[in-house]
Design a protein that fits this description.
Layout lengths: L2 E10 L11 E9 L4 E6 L5 H15 L7 H11 L7 H22 L3 H4 L7 E6 L9 H13 L4 E4 L11 H18 L4 E5 L6 H11 L6 E3 L7 H10 L4 E3 L6 H9 L5 E2 L8 H14 L3 E2 L7 H11 L8 E3 L6 H5 L7 E2 L2 E3 L12 H7 E2 L24
Parallel strand pairs: 4-11, 5-6, 6-7, 7-8, 8-9, 9-10
Antiparallel strand pairs: 1-2, 1-14, 2-3, 4-13, 12-13
Helix pairs in contact: 1-3, 5-6, 6-7, 7-8, 9-10
Family: Belongs to the mandelate racemase/muconate lactonizing enzyme family. GaD subfamily.
Enzyme class: lyase
Catalytic activity: D-gluconate = 2-dehydro-3-deoxy-D-gluconate + H2O
């Protein structure tokens, strides 16, 4: 089947999510010559307009091609775009189109994606909670909310305890962060998984100070402890700390992922299927990681299409640690978009058996939520943090 149309669609609503990035969504609708429809999802962040336009450009390479030729089509764009390995906009656009292509491929063959990737190794995918700590500032805020989350059946929680600190952190910041983490650990007990999100906000020296203060609370991993581009700083962090490192959401190519894996810079790899190159590249990254005994925990923070395809691929991954999960903290409209068919039950999500990515999109709701791409306001609190947490509590 030839690809006849690719349409980027921006969705938003007055109902917001746990963070600014969760309040919008970029859906990609792919239509074939016989009318089959597949869906993908691209990453919005602060770049809604540029990603929307990039999808239109990447589409020029895909329209008229056979939808089944996912490998060939990806590499044609790799050939055409001189800056794919350095462009987030290009990478998320080609990823979204690739996901939509796999959705159609599954529908054409009458099989969920996991069957096209070698079959599943689990019926339910373990997940950890993120997005749960909106407006949490004090240690008590974090502890009480974390207990509520564990009461839902989650076995692990991820959170960013660093308030408004960026690049550098002082003694007050270290104390604030430690008290928040200590409160969560004491509230949940020693068996719960605690994952510390840094959002790549620190220089290496500051992140090393953080690691020395927090390692006693036995974090499952420290995510993006240094600025993403600071490779030398990450190497120094690895040499001078005793914590496990997780990273990967900003990786945009197979070779970039291979570099971090081969250099021993990561313990838990977190590729994002909507960034890394879709299903086509994600499955290769997983195999390379498995060969080096790394665990996989896909980054999964944006919307229900990303969530659906991440569940499908995670079902096939032998070296899966857990899948990130924002689902319970999405705005309701994102759950409604797929009929709320991927609920979390006792810390797991059931692998769906419907063809393609396993979900059906409510096109009536798409029409209701459709909006023109607009630039987001830039405020003191960055869009990448969970809302209401860019604050100190010690004076």
């Amino acid at each position: 089947m030839k690809i006849s149309e690719i349409q980027p669609i921006v969705l938003t609503s007055k109902e917001k999510g746990a963070a600014t990035w969760a309040s919008s969504m970029i859906l990609v609708k792919l239509v074939t010559s016989n009318g089959e429809i597949g869906y993908g999802e691209a990453v919005p962040t602060l770049r809604i307009i540029s990603v929307y336009n990039a999808i239109k450009q990447v589409s020029k390479s895909y329209v008229g091609k056979e939808v089944e030729d996912v490998e060939k089509n990806y590499h044609e764009w790799y050939k055409q775009d001189f800056y794919l390995g350095r462009s987030f906009e290009s990478a998320t656009s080609v990823s979204a189109i690739d996901i939509a292509s796999w959705d159609i491929l599954g529908k054409e063959l009458g099989a969920p994606i996991y069957k096209l990737l070698g079959g599943k190794v689990r019926d339910k995918v373990p997940v950890y909670a993120n997005g749960w700590y909106k407006d949490c500032v004090t240690p008590l805020d974090f502890a009480e909310r974390a207990k509520e989350v564990m009461g839902r059946g989650y076995k692990a929680v991820k959170f960013d305890p660093f308030g408004e600190y960026f690049n550098w952190i002082d003694e007050m910041g270290l104390r604030e962060s430690e008290e928040r983490v200590k409160a969560v650990r004491e509230a949940l007990g020693e068996d719960a998984g605690i994952l510390i999100e840094h959002h790549g906000r620190f220089n290496s020296k500051s992140s090393q100070l953080v690691a020395k203060r927090l390692e006693k609370y036995n974090p499952l991993f420290m995510e993006e402890p240094v600025h993403h581009e600071d490779v030398e700083g990450l190497k120094e962090y690895r040499e001078r700390t005793n914590v496990r490192v997780a990273l990967g959401e900003r990786l945009v190519s197979l070779k970039e992922a291979y570099f971090y894996i081969s250099q021993g810079l990561v313990d838990v790899l977190q590729p994002d299927i909507t960034n890394i190159g879709g299903v086509t590249i994600a499955k290769k990254v997983v195999d390379i990681a498995e060969a080096r005994d790394l665990e996989i925990a896909f980054h999964n923070a944006f919307g229900p299409i990303q969530n659906a395809v991440s569940i499908q691929v995670s079902a096939t991954v032998n070296n899966l640690l857990m899948l990130e999960n924002f689902y319970d903290w999405f705005p309701q409209w994102k759950r409604d978009l797929i009929g709320n068919v991927t609920p979390v039950e006792e810390g797991h999500v059931r692998v769906l058996e419907k063809p393609g990515i396993g979900v059906e999109v409510n096109e009536k709701l798409v029409d209701e939520l459709k909006a023109e791409p607009e630039a987001l306001d830039v405020k003191e609190e960055p869009v990448w943090v969970v809302g209401g947490t860019w604050k100190r509590y010690l004076k």
